[in-house]
Write a structure and sequence with these properties.
homodimer, 352 residues, alpha/beta, 42% helix, DNA-binding
Chain lengths: 352, 352
DNA sequence: AGTCGTGTTGCATTCGCAGTCAAAACAATT
DNA sequence: AATTGTTTTGACTGCGAATGCAACACGACT
């Protein structure tokens, strides 16, 4: 096929700026065929020592990097994964994202990041996800069962991170909120707290719901009923507001507050101290979930259930990689247990 | 060219799972040519109403999404931009990243995220960046002049975010640290502070250096000389350690501490209160830079110079988009001024 | 010398789409 | 009716790399 030589003789040899170097250019310079070049860049392919060396030298001299786009087109593997995150401002997610990209990179995958602010965007984002032919998706954002169904239809593996589908099977990595909540609540109860309050997360957060429900159930089992619950949205302000609402609802402030995440717990502590002039933990105990950075700051020393972010990311990528190789693998939920971090934001009983 | 029809007659009509739908499939179903399908998905292309409608219907029925990979190969536009971030755990960067992806998305660009932990990784990451033929790069991570030079050689636009090259021209968006530092320092001085201390950022942070240098210069202009400076690394612990070091170095704690970022300022406040039992701001004033979320929490109410993250992201993407269209545009540094956020972490003079 | 096996190498084709060019269809004019 | 102008459409090629297949080279063995 004549005319195939993409940049015939234009380049003298050294990397000319602006000229894109293709495998044909490298081939010509090394005096071999294009397929040979291709093979040299794929390890495990048959190529003699001598050729490999010549090709590599030529490639280096020309500043050649294989075109991942072209490669993807023919191999039908983009080595791209999409990561969907709803609110990066959530303090927990940046840590997760950092872990996910690091782990992905270690596995030779690149991360295409999508941040969703509104629910409505999801479908537009998914359309982009399809267009880029990603090998798989990790979603820390909420998807509907219908949206998730499209993934299996298209044979694109989907792993939920720190959440899962309520109405249908899904592959997911989560932290055991129930066990964690039980540990926190039991020790609060042992310390003598009886008047509890709960600040919940947004309704679309499965883990938020779990944390709240598990806390309530555990309290009920301990004989504490009708625990007041107020809504929150995982941010600082809703923690502040949450405590005020609880205090109003209960006539006077609760003895112990379980918050569905750390940032709200921090807001709650600040509200207790600065608005209600309550000493923490002498007058009020506060606990949270996540184990974000600020939770360990001296002003808070929050007692919380730390999520094993690193291990979760690891698990998510392992599951994803497995499903990229074999899309037929059945849905699976991997549940890791959290780590109880005992701070000074709550008076706790001795534990078991 | 026979055999071109990628999935000849296999699919009955409805989207068969696992089968990838191409523009040929859509074309066959709509009874038009492949080029017609291509044109229908590109707006501004000539196509009759009727055809457009038929094609769109067929595409919808088959669940067709154009293959961005194939498109990129031929158009030589991937619509991908790479974002390089060194430490996502930095609290300032998640906010910036969220803005950047949102803005990129609005401009029809997708974000390929690279997080660097060590310096050594940079070259590996850049190799990946080249392979994916991104249209441009936004770097919030440090690059050497040599590394940056490869960008112009390859004609890939590079925009530095919140930093710039010291040894060479570069296109960058930054916040005016000098003016901000001056504002902070002058007002601290007006309030009567004379014994200052500075907690610096890591040496590789240009903005960190600027903040420190500008503060020192401004103090010198006000007659305060030999201000002690201790090293920090932008994290909470180094803020805590920083204050201890300053106190030791100065025999007793400083009256006012300028910290090169908010998180260190927070650490510094905590150290003052809980380690040195100093009331903030009665006994010691603390100021920071960035305007991150926690800075406004009730425990801190930090006086800080907030970076206009949103406008910075906007500017970065605008500059990038311009340079993607015209790679010849000269380097340019766009400097936005910060917003002085007056909290209660410092006693300040009246300002001008 | 002939046969076989092993290891290298090149040719030709393919991935899915965009864009060029020319043919075709249609409308507007003389 | 013939001509011109305008829009719509389809055939074909190529983007850059991977790969099945066949050809080839080389050594070992009969």
């Amino acid at each position: 096929m004549p005319g195939r030589n993409s940049s015939s003789g234009k380049r003298a040899g050294s990397a000319a700026p602006g000229q894109v170097v293709t495998s044909y250019d490298v081939a010509r310079r090394a005096g071999v065929s294009q397929s040979a070049v291709s093979r040299c860049f794929k390890n495990g392919a048959s190529a003699s020592h001598e050729m490999r060396e010549r090709v590599m030298r030529a490639a280096h001299e020309l500043g050649y990097s294989p075109n991942a786009i072209a490669r993807s087109l023919i191999t039908k593997r983009s080595n791209l994964i999409a990561v969907l995150i709803s609110n990066l401002t959530n303090l927990y997610y940046p840590e997760a994202l950092a872990e996910l990209t690091a782990q992905a990179s270690a596995r030779g995958m690149r991360v295409l990041l999508f941040t969703l602010s509104g629910e409505s965007e999801v479908d537009q984002v998914l359309e982009q996800v399809w267009q880029y032919r990603v090998d798989g998706v990790i979603s820390a954002a909420r998807l509907s069962a219908a949206q998730a169904a499209v993934f299996s239809q298209r044979r694109v593996p989907l792993i939920f991170f720190n959440r899962y589908l309520l109405d249908g099977p899904s592959t997911a990595v989560v932290c055991d909120q129930t066990g964690g909540a039980r540990a926190l609540v039991q020790r609060l109860h042992q310390a003598g707290h009886r008047r509890f309050g709960v600040i919940a997360g947004p309704v679309d957060s499965v883990v938020g719901q779990e944390r709240v429900q598990a806390s309530i159930d555990c309290l009920a089992a301990l004989g504490v009923h009708d625990v007041p619950v107020v809504a929150g949205s995982f941010d600082y302000d809703s923690g502040v507001r949450g405590l005020h609402e609880l205090a109003k609802k209960m006539r006077k402030p609760p003895q112990a507050v379980v918050c569905a995440n750390d940032v709200m717990a921090i807001g709650c502590m600040d509200a207790a101290r600065y608005d209600l002039q309550l000493d923490v933990p002498q007058k009020i105990s506060v606990v949270g979930f996540d184990g974000v950075g600020p939770a360990s700051w001296a002003s808070y020393r929050l007692t919380t259930l730390r999520q094993p972010v690193q291990r979760m990311a690891e698990a998510a990528l392992a599951m994803l990689a497995d499903r990229i190789l074999n899309p037929e693998l059945p849905p699976e939920r991997r549940v890791l247990s959290g780590i109880l971090v005992v701070g000074t934001s709550a008076r706790l009983g001795p534990g078991d």
